[in-house]
Write a structure and sequence with these properties.
alpha+beta, six-stranded antiparallel β-sheet, 33% helix, 21% strand
Length: 180
């Protein structure tokens, strides 16, 4: 073995021991049923409805919310009172965050719950006090991080993307759900 090959192998072996390895840990906080009970209480939901947005609806929601619509389908449930329960995903820094959002029959946020958080840090977005900032918000105001919604240091991207997700969902209610 020549010197160059030896140095290459030794460097790669040493790097494997020295460099930190980040491990993906998904934490499931709630099931769908638990989130529904926390947000809406013991209200009966109508059958699940997979909402498929047309290209025009996606453009309209994107324009109104100033947020990119990444997926044209949403899992939704409606109550007899006209409230909505929505299962959605937003991106954290690298991984998806599963969220459940309740909207009242007039489009105001009743609650938001983190179902599964897959990032290695930034889990503070699951704290009830931070999530409470969204309660009562609706489509009439586009929420901005560091303005209406407080940022969490170390969870900036998760905070921003959850805020964007709420903007997108309230505008989805305004543009589509309230007409169903």
């Amino acid at each position: 073995m020549d010197r160059r090959s030896f140095i290459k192998i030794a460097s790669l072996t040493t790097a494997g021991f020295v460099l930190p390895v980040s491990q993906l840990q998904a934490k499931t906080y709630l099931t769908l049923e638990q989130a529904k009970n926390l947000i809406l209480g013991d209200v009966k939901l109508q059958q699940e409805r997979t909402l498929e947005l047309s290209k025009e609806q996606m453009k309209s929601i994107q324009s109104a919310s100033k947020t990119r619509v990444r997926n044209n389908t949403l899992q939704t449930w409606k109550t007899e009172q006209g409230d909505w329960f929505i299962l959605d995903q937003v991106i954290g820094k690298h991984e998806n965050i599963d969220i459940a959002v309740g909207l009242s029959n007039d489009g105001k946020v009743k609650g938001i719950e983190i179902l599964t958080y897959r990032e290695t840090y930034g889990y503070e977005v699951a704290h009830p006090k931070w999530r409470a900032q969204f309660h009562g918000r609706d489509h009439r105001q586009i929420l901005k991080l560091d303005k209406q919604i407080k940022n969490i240091s170390g969870a900036t991207l998760s905070s921003r993307h959850i805020t964007d997700g709420i903007n997108r969902l309230t505008h989805t209610w305004s543009q589509v759900l309230r007409h169903l």
